[in-house]
Amino acid sequence: QVQVVESGGGLVQPGGSLRLSCVASGGIFSINTMGWYRQAPGKQRELVAVVTRGGSTNYADSVKGRFTISRDNAKRTVNLQMNNLEPEDTAVYYCNVHATVFAGERDYWGQGTQVTVSS
C-alpha cells in the first residue's frame, strides 16, 4: 500500500517563506517524477514544480525564481521551498509521486496541505 504524506503548510504573511515536505512509502519499486501541484478555490489543480529522478526540474512560470523543488531519492522525499510568497499562492498544495509498483506505473497523491498567504 503506497502512502504519500505532506507536511509544512500554514499561514504566512506576504513576502514570507514556507517549506513543504512529502514522503512516499509502501510497495514502491522506483520513483520516476515527484512534484507539487496546487488548487485554489474555484480553480483547477495546476502544476507548481516537478523533479525527475535525475534531478531535472520544471516550474510554473508564476513561481520561477521564488520556489525551489528538491528531492532525496534514497529517502523518497521531495521538498518545496517557497520564498517571497504572494497572496496568489494561497491554495491547497498536493504532492504527486509517479512510481513503478508491482502493477506497473501509477500516480499517487497526498492528502493536501493548506498554504495561506495573508496579512
How many DSSP E strands?
11
Average pLDDT taken over every residue = 96
Task: Count up the helices.
Answer: 0
Write the element-wise H/E pattern from the N-terminal end onward.
Answer: EEEEEEEEEEE
Gyration radius, to the nearest Å?
A: 14 Å
Distance between the termini: 40 Å
Pick out the low-confidence regions.
none
Largest sheet: 7 strands, mixed
Fraction of residues in H or I helices: under 10%
Strand content: over 45%
**What structural class do the secondary elements suggest?**
mainly beta
Q: What best-fitting shape do the alpha-carbon axes yield?
A: elongated
Which keywords apply here?
11 strands, 119 residues, mainly beta, elongated, 7-stranded mixed sheet, single chain, 4-stranded antiparallel sheet
Overview of the molecule:
The chain is mainly β. 0% of the residues lie in helices and 60% in strands. The chain has strands spanning 3-7, 10-12, 18-25, 28-39, 46-51, 57-59, 67-72, 77-82, 91-101, 104-109, 113-117. Strands 2, 4, 5, 6, 9, 10 and 11 form a seven-stranded mixed beta sheet that branches. A hairpin with a 6-residue loop joins β4 (28-39) and β5 (46-51). It is elongated and about 45 Å long. The mean pLDDT is 96.
SSE layout and pairing:
Layout: E1 3-7, E2 10-12, E3 18-25, E4 28-39, E5 46-51, E6 57-59, E7 67-72, E8 77-82, E9 91-101, E10 104-109, E11 113-117
Short description:
The chain is 0% helix and 60% strand. The protein has strands spanning 3-7, 10-12, 18-25, 28-39, 46-51, 57-59, 67-72, 77-82, 91-101, 104-109, 113-117.
